[in-house]
């Protein structure tokens, strides 16, 4: 074999070797690209499944009962995107007040499935208080005055002359309950005295009286007179009122705390501006200008809203925005948005646009008119994630 033949053979062998190496490199490149593509798709599918869990968490927080009725349920939440989609199923869990949430994320040929056990906890809108109003005397609502979202207890007579005066809760009166002038209550009305519904007035619910139900208006539910046992246990109602009365020691503690914070005000106090913490007033408190803040005013005398606007929420670690030893009164020229509980040992009278997100505890009479409103804060549904895993 001459040199040219040997060179040709070597060249051919080199070409074959390079072809094999090139093919292997291309194959490896294709394989790595496929692996990378599968990894990318798998990662995208994972995060789509996580997105499904997040959507389910939000939905269950807003409407737990609506989404957990009739389990198991498939495809309760779903959404499609340019690169994939997720679908969420909700199943029964053996743990009380919990559900099993299964979310499947899909991208291309990849699918990832995640599971969470979610538990519902219902937080009270105002812990320790099961009423929007508790009045030791009489209660009168007229004009546009309204009480919403919780029960009303009256240790005297209840008189309603405003539309939608009480809604979202029941009314309990130790004395008589009277609706007139188009007054209406959405809920049940219970009284130890007579219940009288005059022409044009409405009870959307049951009316139960230990004495007589006189209906010249509209009662949509059951009407019961001479009810036994008592529709309102007088002793229990009085005990309920007494259980919320602050002691002299409670007042002393507030005074001591306010003094320690430098917030003790002797005599009549005219607040103006922003406040925080516990403020103790040794006399009357008269508001004639704008007042705001996160504070609790403990007042030995009376509180009067004469003008300006009050925007106040309770001090940290307190349920009360006002604790009053005397009366609470607001005139037509004042307005306010108050949070928490207003506690007064005397009478409570509002004839203007004061909105309370909380409750009122009055040991005297309560009269609300004008655009006065009390809205008990609705309990919130919170979710706790007990476990997470990939299936």
Report on the architecture of this protein.
23% of the residues lie in helices and 43% in strands. With 391 residues, the protein is of the alpha/beta class. The strands form three sheets. The protein has a 19-stranded parallel sheet that branches. It has a ten-stranded parallel sheet with strand order 18-15-12-9-6-32-30-28-25-23, with no helix packed on it. The model has no long low-confidence stretch (mean pLDDT 90).
Helix segment tally = 4
Q: What is the subunit organization of this protein?
A: single chain
The mean pLDDT is: 90
Largest pleated sheet: 19 strands, parallel
Radius of gyration: 34 Å
Q: Can you give the helix content as a percent range?
A: 10-25%
Strand content: 35-45%
Q: In total, how many beta strands?
A: 34
The helix/strand class is alpha/beta
Q: Name the shape in a single word.
A: elongated
End-to-end Cα distance: 68 Å
- Could you name the ranges where pLDDT drops below 50 across 5 or more consecutive residues? none
